[in-house]
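WARN  no MSA supplied for this record, continuing single-sequence
INFO  ligand: hypoxanthine
INFO  echoing inputs
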Amino acid sequence: MDEKTLLKLNFKTLKMKAPFIPKAALVLGSGLGGIIGEENIISQLDYSELDSFPLSTVEGHRGRFIFADLAGVPIVAMQGRVHIYEGYGSAEVVRGVRLMLMLGASALILTNAAGGIDKAFSPGDIMLITDHISSFVPSPLIGENISSLGTRFPDMSRVYSSKLSEIALACARRLNIELKSGVYLQTTGPNYETPAEIRMYSALGASAVGMSTAVEAMAAAHMGVSVLGLSLITNPAAGISSVPLNHEEVQLVAKEAGDTLSALVKEIIAEVGKND
Ligand code: HPA
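INFO  complex generated
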């Protein structure tokens, strides 16, 4: 089945579970799964209930859509995402984001764990994504254009919304969180980078590196939806510190600092709820 047909089919199933038109859509990265308390969940749909929907193979990534009331704002969220390194194509990876936006959400908030390339970053820092480099991963827009979503050759000069960024910065100030900012570079993973690769990414202007997010942001930009991206810096990238990287360490920091990011995301959503 082609992507357009699968989207239509999956949308029908997801729409039946939607109790409202969501104001915002959210992708919960590592460590952020807990932002939505079970008591706030109005309905949910496991990815496995959707036809041919890509399933997460990573431990600690729960796979479901959640409809919830967060800070009084109707939201839809993906708890768990799939990655290119799991063997999925970019279009498959962004299908969940496209479905959430097809429900009518006018803002997309993307979160992830990332390695810090900028030497001023420390583990636990939160980085506002100002722009991204997606040149090392296949575009999610490859293939027949789905013209009901957007144009064939979409502009990518303003993927990350300045209005949402201003809201994020104001919310961080209010919560006394120091919000860093920078350019996110996506790799396919699953391996972490070599020090030489990190030096190259640094020379290219990247501040942080990770294995998600840019393709999702591109899918949203294609649809004309405002995007906010927040990276939780879990470790200095390879060669920035001499310590070898491991997934358990990354998950631990994500979990520890997850509460701060959760608080920030909640505050942002409350603010987004006030804007039309
Ligand atoms: N590299 C790539 N992805 C990551 C990293 C990293 O250092 N840390 C968390 N996700």
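Residues 113-115, 192-193, 209-211, 234-235, 237, 245, 250 surround hypoxanthine (CB under 6 Å).
INFO  checksum written, moving to next record
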